[in-house]
Structure formats: C-alpha cells, structure tokens
Amino acid sequence: MTKLHLCKIILSVILCTCTVLTSITGFAAPSLDQLTDLTGNASVVVTLKGRDNFTSEYRYDVSVRNHSSDLLIADSLVIVLDKITNLAGQDREGLTGESFLGRFDILGQDGETDDGKPFFRVPAGPAPDLGPLTDSLPVTVRLRNKDYVSVFTPSFKVLGQKRPPPEPKQTQAVAPVQPGTTPTSPSRNSVDKLIQLLIKKGVMTEEEWRKANQP
User: Fold this and answer.
1) String of b and e for 172-192 (b: at least 16 CB within 10 Å)?
2) pTM here?
C-alpha cells in the first residue's frame, strides 16, 4: 500500500467522522445564547393529541405561529416550556414555593435553558424561513404528571432569530461630464492607427486628413 493511498483512506475516515458528529450534535443549529425571545412576534399553537390515564401522561403537538411581518429563520426556532399552572393560574406551590415544573417528567426534550427550563427544537420543514402568518411544523411534547394532579396548563415561549433584510445593491454613480470638455473615446487610438495605415497605403494623404479635421 502506497503512502498516497494510505493518506486518502485516513482523510476519508476523518471526513466521515465529522459528518456523523455534526448530524448527532446538531452543530448547524444556533446555540441558545444566539437566540432572542420572540414574544410579541410569535406565539405557540398547542393541541392535546393524547392522554394515558394509567401513567398520567399527556401528549401535545406544539407549533410556532409567526405574527410579525418578518421572516423567522426556521432552524433557529426553539419552544421553551416556561411554566405549568394550576386551575388558579399559579405556577408554584403555595407553601413551599416549588415550581410545578418539578412535579412533571418532561419526555423527549432537547435540553434545558440556563434557568433549568426544558426546551424543544422545532422541525425546520421544507422552507428555510417561517413567513408572516404561517405555522411551523409541530414538535411533540410529552408531560408525565408524577402527582396525578387532575387539571394543569402548560405555558410555552418561543426563542429564535429573525432573517436580516437583504442589503441594498450598490450602484456606481456615473461622473458628470464637465461643461466645455469632450469625453475621450475609448477607440481614439484605434482610429489614429487606421488613419496612418490609410495614408501609408496611399488611400488618402495627410493634407486630405488635415482638411477633413478642420472645424
């Protein structure tokens, strides 16, 4: 086996490993610290898809709706489970102050925010951007109630990035011709060479050329 063939094999293995790691870690997706809170520009659409009374598990489809006139970058959208409230609209235990989030198992989450709240990445879909007044593909959120509380309401918020507007095209300004000046023709040298050739071949004389150029 030659050294060149061995180098090609090693390079192929490295490229394959990098591709696999990228697909596993989702390296292309922006990190949370690059995202902004899109409250006021986008909201969530929550649909209860199923309930398992035996395990007290609830399954929701949650999608993002763009209410703004801006384009939202599709693969940047993240849904955060912000809080869970009871019938009274409270999100914490009255005596201990414990968040109701701690009473639930959150299944299938993609990670947690810096303050410990679970988040889910929204599927990008076929288009690179989420346009105005359109909904994203849904992400499945599964909540398992460890205390078997009968009534609760999950609340979500949306993080993401807006698509920057395209930069205006730069147009070159044409310099105005000053009064009393004659623009220089780019083919003036070619004309002079042609006249010299005609004089040399006897087609015309220098005297004839001078008379033709007199004002």
Assistant:
1) eeeeeeeeeeeeeeeeeeeee
2) 0.64
